[in-house]
Amino acid sequence: MLTIITSPKGGSGVSVCAAAIAGAANAVLVDLDGDQPALLGTSPDATSTTVAQWMAPTPPPKVAEPGTLITRGDNNLNPGDADGWTRCARRLDALAMPVVVDAGCSTVPTALTGIPHQIFAVLRPCYLALHRWYRQGHHCTGVIVVDEPGRALGVDDVVRCVGAPLVAHVRWDPAIARAVDAGLLGVRRPATLAVLDALATRAL
């Protein structure tokens, strides 16, 4: 099962949620956004393969194992490369293990939604993010709301606007920002993110 984590607006918490879900599920994590190595405190040189290698006509040089990070790499990923994305999707589907895709706020390649998948939108109770979601005609399987104090909108407003069920409510926690800033999210996971563990089960 492919679990795609996305948002219409940057800074919503997509990469943090994707890393937390992938870590709890011991899943392969595909980084289309490019922030995962810094977030997890790993060197890109130490990772197994890049997305471009999974899109290439020849198979990637290393086999993915549970917990593998497939990085964005330095290549520009062309969303219009239908053949490349189809190859990537088929290879990910053939892994027979959970795969989590950090799509950031970019357009999800059509080929990735052509295999069994679920899409979780990460949204804060932010009018601009909700307006962009509605205007761009996005859809999802469920919504992860990253709550924060002082907003005029609430969790129920986000769920109503998106039109999908609430699958997780992550409360604002400065410990998450500290873990991200230190590149320690992979080894020092804040307890607040435990609410995402149920989504790890759904990713299996």
Overview of the structural elements:
This protein is of the alpha/beta class. It has one domain (2-118, 173-202). It has helices at 14-25, 36-40, 51-55, 82-93, 127-136, 155-162, 174-181, 197-202, and strands at 2-6, 28-31, 49-50, 69-71, 99-102, 117-123, 142-146, 166-170. The protein has an eight-stranded parallel sheet, sandwiched between helices.
Task: Provide a quick synopsis of the model.
The protein is of the alpha/beta class.
| Major sheet | 8 strands, parallel
End-to-end distance: 6 Å
Cα gyration radius (Å):
16 Å
* Overall spatial form: globular
Strand order of the largest sheet: 3-4-2-5-1-6-7-8
- Give the domain tally: 1
- The helicity comes to 25-40%
Number of helices, counting only DSSP H or I runs of 4 residues or more: 8
- The topology string of helices and strands comes to EHEHEHEHEEHEHEHH
> What structural category do the secondary elements indicate?
alpha/beta
Mean pLDDT: 91
Number of strands: 8
Q: Return residue spans where pLDDT drops below 50 for at least 5 consecutive residues.
A: none
Strand content: 15-25%
Layout of secondary structure:
Blueprint: E1 2-6, H1 14-25, E2 28-31, H2 36-40, E3 49-50, H3 51-55, E4 69-71, H4 82-93, E5 99-102, E6 117-123, H5 127-136, E7 142-146, H6 155-162, E8 166-170, H7 174-181, H8 197-202
Parallel strand pairs: 1-5, 1-6, 2-4, 2-5, 3-4, 6-7, 7-8
